[in-house]
Hints:
Layout: E1 18-20, E2 50-53, E3 61-68, E4 77-86, E5 91-92, E6 109-111, E7 132-133, E8 135-141, H1 154-161, E9 165-171, E10 174-175
Antiparallel strand pairs: 1-2, 2-5, 3-4, 3-8, 4-6, 7-10, 8-9
Amino acid sequence: MAAAQLPYESLPEVPSFSVSSTDVVDGQTLPMPQVSGIFGAGGEDISPQLSWSGFPDDTKSFVVTCFDPDAPTGSGFWHWTVLDIPATVTELPTNAGSQDGANLPAGTVVINNDAGLPGYLGAAPPGGHGPHRYVFAVHAMADEKVGVDASVSNAIAGFNMFGKVLARAIITPVYEQ
């Protein structure tokens, strides 16, 4: 089976900047806290700590997303989307993606994940389906607000981000059952 396209490959190319995490490592297996308990994979649905630097000086806000392009859906699976993070914020702590949003900066907008829940949903690929990539992306935005509310789909959020992303930082751990 060929690897699925990453979600940003068909979009206009933008510069990159740095993202790191004290919880996950690019190319390495997701730790159990970042795996799903809600979907029965034995984890805790705890979003990883993320910090970023080197983004453009004219950044007005950030968007953080987590996407599994390898989900057997034909459209991938959105695990987490946080919009309108103030440009002064350069880190989200571990568990910022809790369903109550208590650890997120004021004014952010959280789009429901593809399970229809707010917050971060951990990895839970089908057993035997092979390794899945979990693309955590930090998008540096040209505007302070994406201009949508929490009721829209991830596709609509992405559509409203189109042409407004100044740069993007990606870290991609993997997981399989």
